[in-house]
Design brief:
Blueprint (H helix, E strand, L loop, with lengths): L4 H19 L3 E4 L3 E3 L4 E9 L4 E3 L11 E13 L2 E11 L6 E4 L2 E6 L2 E6 L3 E6 L26 H56 L2 H19 L8 H8 L2 H15 L5 E5 L2 E9 L2 E4 H28 L1
């Protein structure tokens, strides 16, 4: 008896599947008679069964070939007169060009630890063809005229070039940045000094020509601003006494004091002729006069001091 027990079990479960397949018959119906290629169509799958059965219908991952799945609409189970009805509408489309397309879908019945697959009827739908007759192929006309096509900008190459350039610039800055900054600062100092020499010469020429305190003061102011730039110190706000103390230069002491007398002494310049040349001079005391020749000497003294300061600053930069 034990020998035939497996056979009895197999026949029991296979028999139950045959009974389900005979009692249950899913129905598949297309809701249209015909469609165009690529047009969505609704397919209704209905199964009537006894209450209590677990019914599973194809999901979105099922292969609906020759159709493609778009979406589905599931309706809740309805029970009436001891009969339950499950139904699903599948929205499908096909791109096959055969005149007649067929589809059959399975329904899965899960009971007693087993799952039985039952296929529906084979539903049919016709495909409407928009082109009924293929015309003769047109004759092609050759055209070998030259057409210039604008070349596209090579962005990947440009990005690689920028990355390499930035990397090289970074390496140069790391290894030579201090030296480059030093040379740039020396260049900036020399350029600024050349500009100062030009403006200072124009101002001193006007001061020596017209001998007015305002023009003399303008020369001294320009010199102070330039010497402040070279020394990186706000010397333009210093008084003459503070400037002399800062530089400790005897020539500067005499030059600034004499020029201050001309600017702030409220003296009227006198005109005289020496050696056949008209000379202006300030009589700052009964025994002291400052003529244009002497004033030019004072201006040159200031200029010489600015040259010395520039050379000292450049030597300090190169020494670093």
């Amino acid at each position: 008896m034990k020998k035939y027990l497996p056979v009895f079990i197999f026949l029991f479960f296979s028999g139950s599947g045959i009974i389900y397949s005979q009692k249950l018959q899913p129905t598949l119906t297309f809701l249209k008679d015909s469609i165009n290629v690529g047009e969505p169509v609704s397919a209704l799958l209905v199964l009537k069964h006894s209450p209590g059965l677990n019914i599973l219908m194809p999901d979105t991952f099922y292969n609906f070939s020759p159709f493609d799945f778009i979406e589905k609409k599931v309706f809740p189970t309805r029970t009436s007169n001891n009969t339950s009805t499950d139904s699903v509408i599948y929205i499908l489309q096909t791109f096959e060009i055969d005149s007649l397309q067929r589809l059959s879908l399975p329904v899965y019945v899960y009971a007693r630890g087993d799952c039985t697959q039952i296929y529906s009827n084979r539903a049919e739908i016709r495909i409407s063809h928009l082109v009924h007759q293929v015309p003769n192929p047109p004759k092609l006309k050759s055209n070998n005229s030259f057409v210039e096509i604008k070349s596209q900008f090579n962005y990947p190459f440009w990005n690689i070039f920028l990355a390499i350039t930035a990397g090289i610039a970074l390496l140069i800055f790391i290894f030579f940045g201090k030296k480059i900054r030093r040379k740039f600062l020396i260049y900036k100092l020399n350029k600024r000094h050349k500009k100062f020499l030009k403006e200072y010469a124009e101002s001193t020429n006007l001061a020596l020509r017209y001998f007015k305190p305002v023009q003399i003061e303008e020369c001294v102011t320009k010199w102070k601003e330039h010497i402040s730039f070279i020394e990186e110190t706000p010397l333009y706000s210093f008084t003459s006494r503070e400037m002399i103390k800062y530089f400790k230069d005897e020539n500067l002491d005499k030059s600034l004091h004499s020029l201050d007398k001309c600017i702030y002494g409220h003296f009227t310049p006198l005109e005289s002729i020496k050696f056949g040349v008209t000379v202006y001079e300030f009589r700052v005391s009964p025994i002291e006069t400052i003529d244009s020749i002497t004033m030019d000497k004072y201006f040159r003294s200031l200029l010489l001091l600015s040259d010395n300061c520039l050379n000292n600053r450049i030597r300090r930069l190169r020494g670093n």
